Amino acid sequence: MRLSPQKAGIALISPSLMVIGSLLVYPVIYGIWLSFFKKHSFFPEQRFVGLGNYIYLLTDPEFWTSIWYGTVYSVSTIVLQILVGIAAALVLNEAFRGRNFVRGVVLFPYMIPTVVAIILWKWLLNSQFGLVNYLLLLLGIIDAPISWMGKDHIMTSLILISVWEFFPFVVLSVLARLQTIPPVLYEAAKVDGASAWGRFIHVTLPQLRSVLFVVILLRSIWMFTKFDTVWLMAQGGGAEKYIRTLPVYAYMRTFMYYQAGLGSAIAVVMFAILVIATAVYFRMFRREEGI
Fold first, then answer.
1. For a tag site, which of 18, 151, 170, 221 has the least CB within 10 Å?
2. Residues ≥6 apart with Cβ < 8 Å to 237
3. Spatial distance between the Cα atoms of 195 and 90, rounded to a whole number of angstroms
4. pLDDT tens digits, 255-268
């Protein structure tokens, strides 16, 4: 039997569509459907409650606190990752002895498992025998050890650890773009009398805009939905509620309080926030970046 080109095309893409539908579309639809029910996480009994879970979230102070902590965490880490990543990429783009070795060292935090990174930093930041407090006391910067895992500093510790772990992604992306900028642009700027800062503002930064557009978008999505780093940091310190972001709160409602419907409602809200933020971001910057 000979198929028409249209039918042959449909037959060829059908397996891909089935995989995408089963792995992406079905979980999203099932999560939305589950958010309208009061359901135990492991027992089959369920009761339709309509918008009851969403109405409950509007009056739940832990939910709003989680949104606030998630916003502080994601915005702070994204801004610092971009600043540190661009600065490191500019340095690594210059020629100096041992540059390839330094490039490998800079990428090291991004290659190690998250659980190893968190254990390492918990040792370093320990208030009794940690190296960070020891050095700060030795240099006279502080008079007494700081409880980095206490309620007053655990968010700062989490932000700094996340920046250390994920800024190499920004370095990789920016460095790849820096190496494709035509040198003639810098030579022309020098002829016009532009300083190093002027060349960065008027040559380098405009050339990086398209890359930064994608990097900021991806990092925003990843940091707002980041679970493992936050969850591991919160274990064992007694200050976990001070870094309880929205993904962690959804997990707790689902697998610790066994409220699968409410946990799904939190996940749906988180998904809606990301969709709206992404749409606004595209509307503000896509045309300007020519993407």
1. 18
2. 149, 150, 154
3. 15
4. 999 999 999 999 99
Report d(CA 86, CA 88) in Å as an integer. Answer: 5
Taking alpha carbons only, the member of 174, 164, 47, 42 closest to residue 110 is 164
Rounded Cα distance, 21 and 270, in Å? 21
Structure token pair of residue 103? 């490039």
Average of per-residue pLDDT across 172-189: 91
pLDDT of the residue at 1: 63
Give DSSP secondary structure letters for 244-277: --HHHHHHHHHHTS-BHHHHHHHHHHHHHHHHHH
Residues 6+ apart with CB under 8 A from 159: 73, 76, 77, 80
CB atoms under 10 Å from CB of 208, counted, come to 19
* Measured distance CA(261)–CA(255) in Å, rounded: 11
pLDDT in tens, 190-200: 888 888 888 99
Beta strands 37-39 and 46-48 are antiparallel
DSSP 8-class letter at 95: -
Element (H, E) at 155: helix 154-178
C-alpha dist (Å) from residue 101 to 56, 79, 81, 92, 112: 54, 27, 21, 10, 17
Which residues contact residue 221 at a Cβ distance below 8 angstroms, ignoring those fewer than 6 apart? 274, 278
- Exposed, middle or buried by CB within 10 Å (0-12, 13-18, 19+), for 233? buried
Instruction: Report the predicted TM-score, pTM, of the whole model to 2 decimal places.
Output: 0.86
Residues 275 and 115: their CA atoms lie apart, in Å, by: 29
Indicate the DSSP class of residue 2: P
Q: Which residues 6+ apart lie within 8 Å of 255 measured at CB?
A: 41, 263
